[in-house]
């Protein structure tokens, strides 16, 4: 029973992580080029400020809970376990995209002003958009594979 509590909270945290990335991509990122530079900076700065601290807690928590759920899972050679491993790997890729590509761009954007936009503003915005889409894909895929893992964990005696 205690393992199922870990499974549940791992799935919940992964759903929240994926929801932040999916929601941002679905409602905003796909439309970046439609915003004026002023709008882009304002919206970008507000979102960056809103998610920085919560996601710096939620992502590590989700990773730890997923790792624990994989550790507790007894059918280590099952297809469900491999789905869990793939999910975990995809979440690590999601984290790496965030830390290595998007956070540095976020930090730059946060320091920009309309008077001090870089010359390659559109190129940076396009890179940001592309990596937001990639991160959304890896996160949603992670959630899908982890859901398969959870279905097996709840239906079996793992």
SSE blueprint:
Blueprint: H1 2-27, H2 37-72, H3 79-111, H4 121-155
Can you characterise this structure?
The chain has 158 residues and is an all-alpha fold. The chain has one domain (2-155). The protein has four helices and no strands. The chain has helices at residues 2-27, 37-72, 79-111, 121-155. The longest helix is centred in the middle third of the chain and has 36 residues, at 37-72. The protein is elongated and about 60 Å long.
Concise synopsis of the structure shown:
With 158 residues, this protein is mostly helical.
- How big a fraction of the residues is strand? under 5%
Distance between the termini: 10 Å
Radius of gyration from the alpha-carbon trace, in angstroms: 18 Å
Shape: elongated
- Structural class of the helices, strands and pairings? mainly alpha
**How many H/I helices?**
4
Based on the structure, what is the oligomeric state of the protein chains?
single chain
Order of helices and strands: HHHH
Strand element count: 0
Q: Uncertain regions: pLDDT < 50 for 5+ in a row? A: none
Count of structural domains? 1
The percent range for helix content is: over 70%
Mean pLDDT: 92
The largest pleated sheet is described as: none
């Amino acid at each position: 029973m205690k393992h199922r509590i870990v499974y549940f909270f791992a799935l919940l945290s992964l759903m929240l992580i994926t929801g932040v990335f999916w929601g941002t991509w679905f409602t905003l990122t796909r439309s970046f080029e439609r915003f004026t530079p002023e709008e882009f900076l304002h919206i970008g700065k507000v979102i960056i400020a809103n998610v920085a601290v919560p996601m710096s807690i939620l992502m590590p928590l989700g990773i730890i809970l997923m790792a624990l759920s994989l550790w507790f899972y007894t059918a280590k050679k099952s297809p469900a376990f491999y789905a869990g491993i793939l999910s975990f790997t995809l979440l690590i890729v999601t984290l790496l995209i965030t830390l290595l590509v998007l956070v540095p761009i976020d930090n730059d954007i946060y320091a920009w002003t309309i008077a001090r936009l870089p010359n390659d503003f559109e190129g940076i915005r396009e890179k940001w958009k592309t990596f937001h889409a990639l991160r959304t894909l890896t996160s949603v895929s992670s959630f899908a594979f982890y859901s398969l893992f959870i279905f097996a964990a709840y239906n079996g005696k793992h």
